[in-house]
Prior knowledge:
By secondary structure, the chain is an alpha/beta fold. Helix content is 39%, strand content 29%.
Amino acid sequence: xxxxxxxxxxxxxxxxxxxxxxxxxxxxxxxxxxxxxxxxxxxxxxxxxxxxxxxxxxxxxxxxxxxxxxxxxxxxxxxxxxxxxxxxxxxxxxxxxxxxxxxxxxxxxxxxxxxxxxxxxxxxxxxxxxxxxxxxxxxxxxxxxxxxxxxxx
Length: 153
């Protein structure tokens, strides 16, 4: 395969998105306020997903997930939600509350993945798995820009 061919295949497109995220990560690194920097990086990931995923998948940010017994999850940075059959329960400019059975995946975004961040992700995942799902428990996934442990990256 020639260099030109590599840029036109799907893997090439995804690599381009990855490169754009890397540039955004470095640019947001200039922000001194850590919370604002983290929120910027969350939006970078969620905006990319929103642009790439099918229209029926809503990309929500700052998500609390509720089950049929009214149990609430911890807040996730984002979630992929199928709104075909379930509406949002609540939404304002910065927070969404959605039904568990509408969630395809709950998302955590980390600037740097380390042991304490991994424990946080596992804790949130465990809380979500304890909730009452009518059909299936959603996936929990994490995006990390950096990770010192090569076994995790």
